[in-house]
Structure formats: structure tokens, C-alpha cells
Specification:
With 387 residues, the chain is an alpha/beta fold. The protein has two domains: 258 residues, Aspartate Aminotransferase, domain 2, CATH 3.40.640; 96 residues, Alpha-Beta Complex (Aspartate Aminotransferase, domain 1), CATH 3.90.1150.10. It is built from eleven helices and 13 strands. Helix 7 links the parallel strand 5 and strand 6. Helix 2 runs antiparallel to helix 8, helix 3 packs parallel to helix 8 and helix 9 packs parallel to helix 11. The relative contact order is 0.16.
């Protein structure tokens, strides 16, 4: 059971709307807003007195909350701007050689695509798995693997279909074959129960502005302690290295960089502290409510939504089998009625992603059965336009 009193208190600002757009961006809860704006307020009012030490203390606490959420160690968590930066670090920093190959699916978002495409001029082969019936099948991934496969990468849930692959099964295959398993987690973190160790994930990148209930401009990466020493980041500063000494000379050995031994080596310079404070508050709230309870709630609502759509003339690009669900559903309609669709959604104060003939719905812990019923009522009116 969810703590509905706490949820209602945290999300009072969503009471009069149906917000189903977490796949695009979250509207942060009260505690996240307080953490984000509170950091800036304290910064200004205290004239930045002791700002950086306090900020790094907060960063350390946020590492603990994220680690608790995903089954990792705090030292395996580093902070970045967004998913794209996180994927870029591993794509460009992991030791790949000419002739190696990387496997990914045709459904991947550009955040987990372009960095790998960009390796091809270095003679790193990209092997793309074509989806079937909007699913990315593990047997099709298996057919692409050979002795030169070094990385398999996937999203926890695909942004355009909501399809959720069996991470434990795919991670087990990667472990057995000595392949690094890299995951884009932005559509599922904070919504689905994902344990990086159980899934044998070696590296995961995630922006904080969706399921984690945070703000735009800050995210995190998980990097397994077994591989972090192999990654050479694209940039360095005193926060990411060991050989730091007191001014005026910051180093004494100019022949090498002594990287930190944990995931802090992936960070550099001052971070987006306000954004990280928001992530910390969001993760703390999710941990308090319980990720297993949140997942159960979200998937139950998605099943009710799918059931309600059965007798309506819409095309679903989202696989509806229970094991494929992620709380993200894509519903297609004729593009020539888009203006009318938009008017219906606005009438019911529904917020979704509306693009070129499809409605993308993304559920989270604050959504209710009433939200689903209102969405179905809107779909019923849209269906009448298609008759």
C-alpha cells in the first residue's frame, strides 16, 4: 500500500490536473522543490560561506539514497548533467579496440545511440537489433553476439513503445560471456524496482528529471567497482583525481593523472549542486514510500488503462503482455484529427506527450484510478472522431 497521505501532501500542486507525462519531464514534489530552491537561497543569503564543503556533504548523502534505491554502493555513484553525458563517458572512456562490436536495439533513444554511432570511425562495429512486434527479443540479441562483442546496451524501458526487456536475463547472458552490460535507465528509475547487481548491470546512466522526481540538468551514473578503473574520463579536475596538493602548485607530478579509485573519477569540477539536492530529495521520498510498492501501483494502473482501451479503435505500439509493461504506453490515432485531440486533452486538463499521431502516457506514484478513468473518458471522445 502506498502512503497516500504523504503523496497527497507532496503533490498537492497536481490535484486539479491529470499529469501523465513523466516520460518527458516530472513536476517535482514539494520536498524536491524545497531542496532545489533551498540550496540557492542558502547560497545567496549566507554569501556562499562554507558553500562547497556543505555541498559535497549533500552530494555524499545523495549518493547513499541513489545507492539504496538501485542496490549499489555509494562509491559506485557519480553525478553528471544527464543521460547523454553519462552514456558518452562510458562510450568514449571504456577500452575498445579496432574490430570490437557493440550491440543495441533499433528503438533506442538518441541519448543511448549517437555516442555509439560516433565510435564507428574508430572501426568499432555497431550491430543493431531490429525489433519485432515492437519488442526487442533477447534471442535476436543472442544472434548478434560473437567473440568481439564487448558491450550490449539497452534502455530499461523504450521511450517510444514502453517495452521493458528482461534485464536479469540479458544481464546474466552478459556476465556469462564477459560482456559489459550498459543501461539507459531514465524511463524507469524511481518507477520500477531495478537492482543493478541482480541484473548484472555494469554501467547505468540516468537523468534526474523524470522518474527520480528531480529537476532538469542533473543526473547520475552507476559504475560497477569492478570496471571503474578501466574507464578514462574525457575530462579531469581536482575532484576526480588523487594527486591534489595545496596551492600555489596544485600538483607536483606532471607526467600522469592519478585518478580516484571509485566513481568520483567520472565527475569533474563543481557539479550542479542544486540539481543533485533535488535528486537526493526525490530518491529519499521514493525510498520512503518504497520502490516495490510504487512499481506495483504503476503497473496496476497501466493494466486498467490497457483494459479500458480494448474496445476502442486505437493502435497500440506498446506491447501489452504483463512482463513487458513499464508504466509507459503509446497510443496512435490519425494525424488529421490532432487539433481536435489536443482540444479534448486540454478540456480535461490532461498532460501527456502528443506528437505526430501518438499519445504517450507515463504513469508515476502520484497517479490514481481517477486519473486513468479521466484519460479513458478522453480516449472515448477521441474514438468518436475516428468513427
Amino acid at each position: 500500500m502506498l502512503n497516500n497521505d504523504l503523496i497527497n501532501e507532496e503533490f498537492a500542486h497536481l490535484r486539479d490536473v491529470v499529469f501523465l507525462n513523466a516520460s518527458l519531464v516530472i513536476i517535482p514534489p514539494k520536498s524536491v522543490q524545497d531542496a532545489y530552491f533551498g540550496f540557492t537561497k542558502n547560497y545567496i543569503e549566507n554569501f556562499a560561506d562554507n558553500l562547497i564543503p556543505k555541498a559535497w556533504e549533500m552530494v555524499g548523502e545523495t549518493r547513499k539514497e541513489i545507492a539504496k534505491l538501485i542496490g549499489a554502493k555509494p562509491a559506485e555513484i557519480a553525478f553528471v548533467k544527464n543521460t547523454t553525458e553519462g552514456i558518452g563517458i562510458i562510450a568514449n572512456g571504456y577500452p575498445l579496440e579496432k574490430g570490437d562490436n557493440i550491440i543495441l536495439a533499433d528503438q533506442e533513444h538518441t541519448a543511448n545511440l549517437y555516442a555509439w554511432i560516433n565510435l564507428q570511425p574508430k572501426d568499432i562495429e555497431l550491430r543493431v537489433v531490429s525489433s519485432r512486434d515492437n519488442k526487442v527479443l533477447i534471442e535476436d540479441i543472442l544472434e548478434k553476439i560473437d567473440e568481439n562483442t564487448k558491450i550490449i546496451t539497452t534502455s530499461t524501458a523504450q521511450f517510444s513503445t514502453g517495452y521493458s526487456i528482461n534485464l536479469e536475463k540479458l544481464g546474466s547472458i552478459c556476465k556469462e560471456r564477459g560482456i559489459l552490460f550498459v543501461v539507459d535507465g531514465i524511463q524507469s528509475m524511481g518507477k520500477l524496482d531495478i537492482d543493478v547487481k541482480k541484473c548484472n548491470i555494469g554501467y547505468l546512466a540516468c537523468g534526474g528529471n523524470k522518474g527520480l522526481l528531480g529537476m532538469i540538468g542533473a543526473g547520475f551514473v552507476f559504475c560497477d567497482e569492478k570496471i571503474v578503473h578501466r574507464i578514462i574520463p574525457p575530462y579531469a579536475c581536482y575532484q576526480s583525481v588523487e594527486n591534489y596538493v595545496k596551492p600555489p602548485a596544485l600538483i607536483t607530478d606532471y607526467s600522469k593523472i592519478d585518478w580516484r579509485k571509485d566513481s568520483r573519477r567520472l565527475e569533474s569540477g563543481n557539479l550542479n549542486y542544486a540539481g543533485i539536492a533535488a535528486i537526493g530529495a526525490g530518491a529519499k521520498l521514493i525510498n520512503k514510500i518504497g520502490i516495490k510498492e510504487i512499481q506495483s501501483h504503476i503497473l496496476n494502473l497501466e493494466e486498467k488503462l490497457i483494459e479500458g482501451l480494448k474496445d476502442m479503435p486505437f493502435q497500440l505500439r506498446s506491447p501489452v503482455e504483463k512482463e513487458c509493461l513499464s508504466g509507459l504506453l503509446c497510443v496512435y490515432y490519425p494525424t488529421d484529427i490532432e487539433d481536435e485531440v489536443n482540444k479534448i486533452l486540454k478540456k480535461y486538463r490532461i498532460y501527456v506527450t502528443l506528437r505526430g499521431g501518438y499519445i504517450r502516457i507515463s504513469l508515476h506514484l502520484y497517479n490514481t484510478e481517477e486519473d486513468v478513468n479521466i484519460m479513458l473518458k478522453a480516449f472515448s471522445e477521441i474514438a468518436q472522431l475516428m468513427a
